[in-house]
Amino acid sequence: MKSNFREFFMQKMLIMFKPEDIDVSAKEFISTYASYMETVGIVGKGPDGYALYSSKTAPVREEHVEFFDEWVKLNDALGIHDVVGMDLYTDGWFAKDPKYQTMNDKGVKMEHQICPNRPEFWEYGAEIVKEIGAFPVNEILVFGSGFIRDQFCFCDRCRADFAPLVDQEPNRLTHQFLTENPEHHAKWHEWRSDVIHKGLEVLQAAAESSDEATGREQPLRLSIEVLLDPETGLSEGARNEYGYDYSRIGEITKNVLINLFPWSPILPTKGSNEYSELVESLYFVNEFTRRGGRASLFRWGVTTTEQLQELKTLGRDAGIDRIVTTFHYPSDYSRRRESAIGNY
Ligand SMILES: [Zn+2]
User: Fold this and answer.
1) What is the pTM of this model?
2) 128-161: per-residue pLDDT in tens?
3) What is the CATH number of the domain that holds 44?
4) With 329 labelled, which of 30, 228, 258, 261 sits at a CA distance of 20 to 30 A?
């Protein structure tokens, strides 16, 4: 892998690193590759809920604190666009707390993601944004911003908040009850979407207060991950499954990170019907960009330049010029995939 770094950087893409990807010090790595890097990223808070910097809010992976600190400061000093990744509702540490667990209507709890309907957690996320924003970074990629699926969330709080909107008893609310009545189901989608975007507004306010606190020249950018997969109906299906509203993200943070085919390993080949469908489902990007937003294409586990070229080709066809990748899939990937496309 190591020998590929230069080749990857020369493709002018954003690679999101984990400290484990790098077997030398931050200083040695950056001084080796700085002349090839316009931008580079590092994890700030991972899906296990731990921070890699000296957080006062989240639990900390102490062994990475020094690396993180040196990494972001050196990039800033060298004028490299400095990006930090942050997992939001995908938070394994919080997901252990029964109060925050997200569950389906049968009470099956998830171990990797919490319920988004938690204003106190938005404040927690906002503190993380402010902490990362106190470093000289340009952008935060916010991963895990939606619900797991349409079948979530049926925790006590979601039941109590939503059931009155469809004149139902909270403890008698089921997914079937919602799907049987298109009006109820539409209300469910609308309500969940509202939950997600209110949370994002809190994060954006935190980013703006970090701008004031640090006096940074360009506003701290929050790029919001949205999942786009054939298993969940590409971009249109994602609205209802995960709760995204692309135009609202455009208004709130102006930046979207499209996680391409997270649950489907193979991208369709150019020329196929599936490829045309995919390009078509990315049409929303045109409107998003026209209104001043910026879209990036993201993919986990890109390790060859062939995979990269495939992404770039798609990006060109969809009008997206920014490609973001990681070398690995998330460590809890199989669990996530199972919960995202499982039968409920
Ligand atoms: Zn809930």
Assistant:
1) 0.97
2) 999 999 999 999 999 999 999 999 999 999 999 9
3) 3.20.20.80
4) 30
